[in-house]
């Protein structure tokens, strides 16, 4: 089952990359390779800069337990459905968003909330239709409220209390080192990325910035949930796309010298 869910996640991820680079086959391949193979920076003792649940490690973002891979796939699918509805307003996309909201809310209410926030911000800045956000929100809201009430009762409340104490604070530099070269390239590439702004790129930028800010913010402690929930593997997918723009800019400017 892990193989099936991993292949599904990778397939949807490539579809998302294709939306970001609709006319650049080379860019799609580079972004996909960066996403699937990028690793943390190495240490002198042949190990890697790492921390708990670090999405900079390929085995963490492409593996794990089935429900993690399902959640990642649903996040990518939700973003795709949002973009597809903006392009072709078909009701089937709204049904898909409602189901996606329910599934993601069932697996990880925090990441459901992140997607709601990303779609909301993108709705205002991108002037997109409000219906996709509404269907996704209403699809997940009942199960999220149910789980909230469930985890307020024992024995589930004990698990919630344990999670509240598991905050991770790696620091900015260890965080960059743990995410590896793709993070450094993405910091450079985001400026080239936003110059070709489309709805899918707006979603990518909002998602990336929002998840990283929330990861380092005091909000997880206030909500009493572990902060690693606020940084899904999809953030690394978007970092890979931004890093690809940096590589393309380097090739365009200094390609004849370097190559």
Primary descriptors:
globular, mainly alpha
Summed up:
With 259 residues, the protein is mostly helical. It has helices spanning 2-20, 25-37, 58-62, 66-87, 91-107, 109-126, 131-150, 156-164, 172-179, 181-194, 199-216, 219-223, 233-258.
Characterize the structure shown.
With 259 residues, this protein is an all-alpha fold. Helices cover 75% and strands 0% of the residues. α6 crosses α11 and α10 crosses α13. The radius of gyration is 18 Å and the shape is globular. The termini are far apart. The mean pLDDT is 91.
Portion of residues within helices: over 70%
Strand tally is: 0
Poorly predicted ranges:
none
Instruction: Please state the CA-atom Rg, rounded to the nearest Å.
Output: 18 Å
N-to-C SSE string, H for helix and E for strand: HHHHHHHHHHHHH
| General shape | globular
Largest sheet: none
Query: What percent strand?
Result: under 5%
Class from secondary-structure proportions = mainly alpha
- What's the tally of helices? 13
Average pLDDT level? 91
